[in-house]
Amino acid sequence: MPKVGMPDIRKPQLVHATMSVIDRVGLHGASVALISKEAGVSTGIINHYFGGKQGLLQETMREVLRQLSHTVKSRLSQLPKNEHHQRINAIIDGNFVGYQAENKVAKTWLAFWSHSIHDPQLKRLQRVNEKRLLSHLKTELKALFDSEQAEIVAHGIAALIDGIWLRGTLNPGGIDASKARLIINDYLDNQLNQYSKNN
Predict the structure, then answer these.
(1) Is the residue at 80 inside a domain?
(2) What average pLDDT does range 20-24 have in this prediction?
(3) Structural domain span for residue 103
(4) Which residue numbers delimit the DNA-binding region (predicted)?
């Protein structure tokens, strides 16, 4: 029986080990044996805490999503409610800097992203993430556009975030947060200029 308090140590340890193994051998090669060896624990611990590999993979994706949500909320909390452009940039930055830009985290994201097409639980988590991103964006954009246009621009920014992130993850040089911000702000400025001309 695991000691009291051990889950708080073991669970994060196993999540980080999962990311390290996925970084090295990919999602399909990330076996329970490799992950437990990386974490320095027995394979039975994974079954005990997560019910097997699938449960561990889901918890790993949840952790990545928690970190992303925390980063975005933390950045937004530091900005005034009426600084909508700055707040949009805080949302953009949250997707490209810090934890999300770490190589093993980015590779884990990419592995889960592709795997979620065929995995209902991972797909559900991916949809939660997508809805959260669009919700954050629409909250700020509705102060700059009418509701219909805010919806369109939110989807445009989300598509740019995904596309730039994907290219950066596949690029040996990694993700360039400054370039991402520049590209997305250019799109946003063009949308604002076009909107102001028509209204």
Answers:
(1) yes
(2) 94
(3) 60-198
(4) 31-50
